[in-house]
Amino acid sequence: MTKQDTRSADSRDMYAVHTMFRREFAALPTLIRSVSAHDQKRTRTVADHVALLVDLLHAHHHSEDDHCWAKLASRGPHDVAPVVELMQSQHQAVDTALQDTERQTAAWRASATAEDRDALAHTIDGMLPLLGEHLNAEEEKMLPLIDRYLTADEWAEVGNKGLGNVPRTKVPVLFGMLLQEASDEHRELFKEAVSPPVFAVMSRVGPMALKRYQRKVFAFR
Predict the structure, then answer these.
(1) Measured distance CA(174)–CA(14) in Å, rounded
(2) To 10 degrees, the CA torsion angle through 195, 199, 202, 203?
(3) N or C end: fewer C-beta atoms under 10 angstroms in the chain?
(4) What is the pLDDT of residue 165?
């Protein structure tokens, strides 16, 4: 039986996750608008990238919704409950924008028209402030409460459940994205969360997979 880690959670790794989402989503509008109208191949490639990021953010939020908020609300109701309600409300707002993004990505993938391309880029432009507001609020208000009320094992479960919803073929690319701007401190936290052997492989394979992926997606660069 594996010994449980009852130390307090250390949520500093979330800063690296948020950095990834801020960077990758902020790059989307320019990337989308760079695709020429009726270029079906480039449209499919970039639409697939948009869909991947949307899926990653959905998985991240669903993991928090399913494995984090209820525990926090039950352990520190007076100071945690209002923050949990804020997180849930912000998740709902971002999720609505993500659903719009999914619909418009599908439409653009099918048509490859300038009209659908620009509509998708415009929708993501509008989502960025919502996403930024949520990530900032989570860092300021929620992470200190996670460190106070969750154990290290419980916090690792949140991340691992989210990772479990990522297609296996995309896991190396995800690790590459996570490690792209990660500090040594964040790398050590990731290593502990996913286990040193797994991290040893992914820290080597991930950056290489990401480079190949970026050459394909950002071909215009």
Answers:
(1) 14
(2) 170
(3) N
(4) 83
pTM of the model: 0.93
Please name every residue paired with 151 in a beta bridge, in sequence order, or none if there are none: 8
Residue entry with tokens 């945690």 = 80
Contacts of 112 (CB under 8 A, 6+ apart): 37, 38, 39, 40, 43
Q: What is the pLDDT at residue 139? A: 97
Tokens 């989502």 appear where? 127
Are 153 and 5 a contacting pair, CB within 8 Å?
A: yes
Low-confidence ranges of the chain (pLDDT < 70): 1-5, 220-221
Is residue 93 within 8 A of residue 21, CB to CB? The reply is: no
Residue closest to 24 by CA, chosen among 220, 216, 214, 207 = 214
DSSP-derived secondary structure letter, 142: I
pLDDT value of residue 3: 57
**pLDDT tens readout for residues 93-114:** 999 999 999 999 999 999 999 9
Residue 158 makes CB contacts below 8 A (sequence gap 6+) with 63, 64, 67, 68
Point out which residues pair with 8 in neighbouring strands: 151
Which pLDDT belongs to residue 195? 83
Tokens of 127: 């989502």
Q: Check: CB of residue 37 under 8 Å from CB of residue 114.
A: yes
pLDDT of residue 1: 42
